[in-house]
């Protein structure tokens, strides 16, 4: 969007002033001078109109180094001085011509133009052998014209500078805003990618891992224990259906499928029961405190941590016993998952799972503690505000 200068908003007011002065001067010249000289002066004054419309108007408030600016001022001086030579009353037009010089060039150059505009009236007056009273009157008139022009012109010069500074500042702000919008858009895209990566890792990837493990277990039972093989295939089919539900929830931006139509404690209980069925280990789930609904963000975080922790038990722990506890307190909810598996060194783990859990918990202002060591099992404890 193009930023407007002061002239773009208020040039009509200046032009109304110039037009009023020009018309008044022409009428004054026609009335105060013999017909022939008055007509010549009026014609010269009216010639300033097309000169301004076709050249001067587009230069006001623009580039002050443009050669066309000086051509316009030179033509303006010639027309003014010629009109004043034809009819002295035409000097009234200086109240419109002089300020234009300040609107077009710097005030130092405008002073030169001001001298040239007033030179012809001064020479013509001095050549008429005036008396003392006339000299005083002329001096006062010249001082008024010059003083008014300088005051008006310097004021306009400041308006031009402020307008340009404002335009440059707005352009800089617009550029900065566009850059910030692009950065924000890129950050939003990156955040969405990270969110989707975490969701896919915590749901679909874990589900596919479970399906693969169950099918591998079923393959081992085929031929020698068909009933166990069918049970493993059935668990794999159920996991596939759950994965499909999770995929649909992700696409539709719905709450996680395990939370659909049920509470958090019920979903965590189902996850624990599923682990028991898949691995055949002792998996106990305990609920303490008065169950209640939490914010959607807190429930999703606790569910995802439970899914990730149990998936790690399934893939890495080789545990014989797993304990899952969900405790509701007055100001927080605590989820704790323990196993007696092979353990690991938490500082040496660089997987996406732990990093993703910490990111999720941090987003809701919670805390995550992972305690483990080789051969001593693992404990994952997460607490979020209620």
From TrEMBL:
Coiled coil: 159-186
CDD domains associated with the record: HATPase_UhpB-NarQ-NarX-like (cd16917)
Catalytic reaction equation(s): ATP + protein L-histidine = ADP + protein N-phospho-L-histidine
One GO MF term: kinase activity
Pfam families the UniProt entry points to: HATPase_c, HisKA_3
Keywords for the protein's UniProt record, in alphabetical order: 4Fe-4S, Coiled coil, Cytoplasm, Iron, Iron-sulfur, Kinase, Membrane, Metal-binding, Transferase, Transmembrane, Transmembrane helix, Two-component regulatory system
Name of the protein in question: Oxygen sensor histidine kinase NreB
Organism: Actinoallomurus vinaceus
Enzyme class of the recorded protein, top EC level: transferase
């Amino acid at each position: 969007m193009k930023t407007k200068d002061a002239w773009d908003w208020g040039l009509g007011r200046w032009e109304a002033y110039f037009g009023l002065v020009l018309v008044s001067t022409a009428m004054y010249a026609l009335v105060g001078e013999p017909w022939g000289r008055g007509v010549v002066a009026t014609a010269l004054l009216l010639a300033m109109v097309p000169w301004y419309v076709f050249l001067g108007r587009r230069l006001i408030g623009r580039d002050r180094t443009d050669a066309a600016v000086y051509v316009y001022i030179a033509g303006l001086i010639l027309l003014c001085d010629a009109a004043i030579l034809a009819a002295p009353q035409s000097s009234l037009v200086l109240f419109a011509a002089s300020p234009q010089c300040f609107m077009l060039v710097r005030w130092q150059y405008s002073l030169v133009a001001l001298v040239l505009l007033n030179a012809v009236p001064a020479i013509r007056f001095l050549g008429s052998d005036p008396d003392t009273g006339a000299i005083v009157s002329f001096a006062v008139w010249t001082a008024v014209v010059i003083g008014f022009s300088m005051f008006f012109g310097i004021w306009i010069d400041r308006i031009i500078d402020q307008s340009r500074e404002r335009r440059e500042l707005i352009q800089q702000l617009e550029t900065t805003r566009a850059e910030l919008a692009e950065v924000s858009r890129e950050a939003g895209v990156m955040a969405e990618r990270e969110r989707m990566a975490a969701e896919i890792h915590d749901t679909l990837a874990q589900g596919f891992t479970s399906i693969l493990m169950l099918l591998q277990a079923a393959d081992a039972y085929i031929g020698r224990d068909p009933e166990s093989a069918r049970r493993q295939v059935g668990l794999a089919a159920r996991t596939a259906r759950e994965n499909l539900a999770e995929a649909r929830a992700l696409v539709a931006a719905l709450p996680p499928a395990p939370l659909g139509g049920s509470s958090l404690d019920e979903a965590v209980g189902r996850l624990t029961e599923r682990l028991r069925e898949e691995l055949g280990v002792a998996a106990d789930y305990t609920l303490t405190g008065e169950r209640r609904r939490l914010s959607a963000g807190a429930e999703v975080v606790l569910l995802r941590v439970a899914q990730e922790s149990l998936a790690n038990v399934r893939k890495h722990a080789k545990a014989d016993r797993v304990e899952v506890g969900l405790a509701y307190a007055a100001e927080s909810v605590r989820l704790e998952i323990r196993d007696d598996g092979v353990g690991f060194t938490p500082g040496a783990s660089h997987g996406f799972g732990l990093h993703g859990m910490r990111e999720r918990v941090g987003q809701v202002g919670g805390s995550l503690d992972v305690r483990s060591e080789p051969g001593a099992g693992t404990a994952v404890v997460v607490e979020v505000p209620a």
